[in-house]
Specification:
Elements lengths: L12 E5 L32 H13 L4 E5 L9 H8 L6 E6 L4 H11 L3 E5 L5 H8 L5 H13 L6 E6 L8 H11 L2 E6 L17 H7 L7 E4 L9 E5 L5 E5 L12 E4 L4 E3 L8 E2 L1 H5 L4 H13 L31
Parallel strand pairs: 1-2, 1-10, 2-3, 3-4, 4-5, 5-6, 6-9
Antiparallel strand pairs: 7-8, 8-9, 10-11, 11-12
Helix pairs in contact: 1-2, 1-9, 2-3, 3-5
The chain binds S-adenosylmethionine and iron/sulfur cluster (SF4) (2 copies).
Length: 339
Amino acid sequence: MPLIDTLNRPLRDLRISVTDRCNFRCVYCMPKEIFGPDHQFLHRDQILTFEEITRLARLFAAHGVRKIRLTGGEPLVRKDLPDLISMLAEIPDLDLTLTTNGSLLPKHARALKDAGLKRVTVSLDSLDNAIFKSMNDVDFPVEKVIEGMEAAAAVGLAPIKVNMVVKRGLNESSILPMARFFREKGYILRFIEYMDVGHTNGWRMDDVVSAAEIVKLIDPGTAAPEPVSPNYQGEVAGRWRYKDGKGEVGMIASVTQAFCRDCNRARISAEGKLYTCLFAVKGHDFRDLIRNGATDEDISKFISKVWSGQDDRYSELGSGEHHLTNKVEMSHWRLISQK
Ligand code: SAM
Ligand code: SF4
Ligand code: SF4
């Protein structure tokens, strides 16, 4: 039986951050001024081991979780990640996937596929090198990310999904070229509204380009997309199919159209804290529980207690409510103090 929370939402989807480190410094996620050379990342012994992650994943799966997405930071900078994939791939009936900036896919795609990974989502915010480099802030070129997507497609990590965060004044001009390019390639592009996560990105509502605006910007002529019903309950991306039947795009409208009532996701940070919401102020510590000798039954009970007691719905409450202290950073899901 799936676990149900106080708002009658089942726990189905678990996102696991395998590292707080990243080789990019996206301005909306890990701005250089804060994540500079002096930034203290977690020590190796502070992050969950592959055995600890797998043990937790099994227990969450026993509670009804059907999808696990590995994320970060950049998950592919974690050493020997394919070993973790092969451990997780042994859990039955699990949709196992990963979100990456694509930079290391040419090197690792084959090993990830062989280890049992099913699909990947690759983030890319523009096809224009000047814009993309100004967003990743480490001078990383577009072509290398596309190379990563193609390496993934070549080994069958498909269908490839592409995530594009849209921030006003930075990359609206890239919306239409991205839509056309990925429609042609047959990859599913998902536009993400710039979200108010953490404190370090200096979020302002004015910076958000709404999903409604984005839809209007996509081929206003014959190829304009039309909405289609979701694939499953709790799907975060609103689906839009092109009228000529060729391809679709997704809209993740977490700011302007909150989807909290269908939210079935939880997140585990690299250091083993469980967050029941992207905007949660408090994590539940599983690492200490595990390292203090908890049995599977103890851990299972803690999972039940946390999920069945939760009632988070921050997006639905409106962005005004987001200005809480100590929100969790998108990049690593752990608390850093507000500057
Ligand atoms: N490093 C990997 C990547 O970039 O795909 C995985 C981690 S990243 C935190 C996961 C996704 O969150 C990426 O698609 C990224 O673009 C998105 N993201 C990061 N900060 C965001 C923000 N403030 N608003 C909306 N999406 C954001
Ligand atoms: Fe790194 Fe991904 Fe955040 Fe960009 S969005 S800084 S690639 S974790
Ligand atoms: Fe789920 Fe929280 Fe996002 Fe609402 S704000 S959809 S509860 S993660």
